[in-house]
């Protein structure tokens, strides 16, 4: 939500910033397909860990002093890849580690913190900008939290194997 304002703060014109932010959607779509494909073939906890650590690279690129258009678009592409993969990772891992017995409750419980973060993140970013007149502290906070989340996913280990329920005769 704040990416366009962040780019404008880094002396990118409003129109150029809008065009660059436009890339997120395309990379997000591609990421959903790639992430799903990888989770079916590679340990999902590893794919999830990478998906959660990936935005740290995008944020770090946005921290590059006088980062030009190529660096900014690379950062945006990486952020788009992570946006597309994270929800799929959370859903997939929830079903693999907890089964399908109470999927509705589980999914709601997992999505509530994500929804809170999605709703409060832009407000926090704006508050940080108002306080410090830069988004830099928010980018460092994001990097720290995404590394913690990614490392937590890396420690999950292999998911359990669930027995399928017998069909009623």
User: Overall pLDDT, averaged?
Assistant: 89
The quaternary organization reads as single chain
Helix content: over 70%
Shape: elongated
| SS class | mainly alpha
Task: Give a count of the beta strands, DSSP E runs of length 2 or more.
Answer: 0
Helix tally equals 6
Strand percentage lies at: under 5%
Order of helices and strands: HHHHHH
Radius of gyration: 18 Å
- End-to-end Cα distance: 52 Å
Major beta-sheet overview: none
Outline the low-pLDDT stretches.
none
Overview of this structure, please?
The model has no long low-confidence stretch (mean pLDDT 89). With 169 residues, this protein is an all-alpha fold. The protein is elongated and about 60 Å long. It starts with a helix and ends in a 15-residue tail after the last helix. Helix 1 (3-9) packs across helix 2 (14-41), helix 2 (14-41) runs parallel beside helix 4 (69-98) and helix 3 (44-62) packs antiparallel against helix 6. The protein has helices spanning 3-9, 14-41, 44-62, 69-98, 103-132, 136-154. 79% of the residues lie in helices and 0% in strands. It is built from 6 helices and no strands.
């Amino acid at each position: 939500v704040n990416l366009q304002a962040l780019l404008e703060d880094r002396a990118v014109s409003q129109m150029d910033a809008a065009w660059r932010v436009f890339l997120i959607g395309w990379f997000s779509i591609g990421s959903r397909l790639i992430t799903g494909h990888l989770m079916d073939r590679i340990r999902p906890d590893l794919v999830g860990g990478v998906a959660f650590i990936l935005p740290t690279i995008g944020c770090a690129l946005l921290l590059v002093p006088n980062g030009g258009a190529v660096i900014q678009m690379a950062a945006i592409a990486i952020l788009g890849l992570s946006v597309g993969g994270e929800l799929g990772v959370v859903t997939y891992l929830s079903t693999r580690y907890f089964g399908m017995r109470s999927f509705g409750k589980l999914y709601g419980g997992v999505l509530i913190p994500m929804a809170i973060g999605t709703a409060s993140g832009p407000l926090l970013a704006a508050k940080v900008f108002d306080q410090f007149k830069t988004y830099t502290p928010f980018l460092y906070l994001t990097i720290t939290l995404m590394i913690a989340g990614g490392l937590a996913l890396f420690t999950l280990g292999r998911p359990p194997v669930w027995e399928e329920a017998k069909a009623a005769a």
